[in-house]
Amino acid sequence: MTDESVRELLAANLRHARTRRNLSLSELSRLSKIGKATLSQLEAGAGNPTIETVFSLSRALEVPISDLLDQRRGNGLTVVRAAEVEALSGEGVDLHPLRSIVTGDTVFEVYDQVVRSRQDSLGHLGTEHTIVQAGRLGVRVDGREVELGPGDYVGFDALLPHGYTALDGPVRSVLLLQYRSDQRLHSTPGCSAGS
């Protein structure tokens, strides 16, 4: 990201989301299963947020992931250069946030995703859509498993426990997260956030 780092964006948006829900750091710690000291560091713009941390906060605060990482941009032509996007990394996945799109009552977040090994999620808000570009991807959703190759698609309720596994080395994919616009932290009807 060019003007603000992931840490700075997360700090401001986390404080906003927590106060909007009238939660103390202790209450958010209990809901997210993230230590109070870690949350305090994140709100101060310190620490090193991982995918797992952001997903846990999204689930606990009941907001889309992009609301915790959103950087407002003007309207018009949008070009996102891979080299300028700070990756959000987890145990086995690197996510590069590319864009949030609001259309009517639906929000889509677009990510460039690289699955390096195995990544598990307890679940989070929204519907998850993944399109494999290169490699073989194992997908687990609530106990069911499927294998995807280049060009294959999977979609599921992201509240269900799920995970991805790179079966033969790193997998490139496009991840789309879909939400209702009334679930957004920064509700602005008719605008295109991140555009």
From TrEMBL:
Tagged with keyword DNA-binding: yes
HTH cro/C1-type domain span: 14-68
GO CC term, one of those recorded: cytosol
Keyword Ligase listed: no
Pfam families: Cupin_2 (PF07883), HTH_3 (PF01381)
Example GO molecular function: DNA-binding transcription factor activity
Keyword list, A-Z: DNA-binding
Domain of life from the UniProt record: Bacteria
Alphabetized InterPro entries for the sequence: Cro/C1-type_HTH (IPR001387), Cupin_2 (IPR013096), Lambda_DNA-bd_dom_sf (IPR010982), RmlC-like_jellyroll (IPR014710), RmlC_Cupin_sf (IPR011051), TransReg_Diox_bact_type (IPR050807)
PANTHER family: HTH-TYPE TRANSCRIPTIONAL REGULATOR (PTHR46797), METHYLPHOSPHONATE SYNTHASE (PTHR46797:SF1)
Protein's UniProt name: XRE family transcriptional regulator
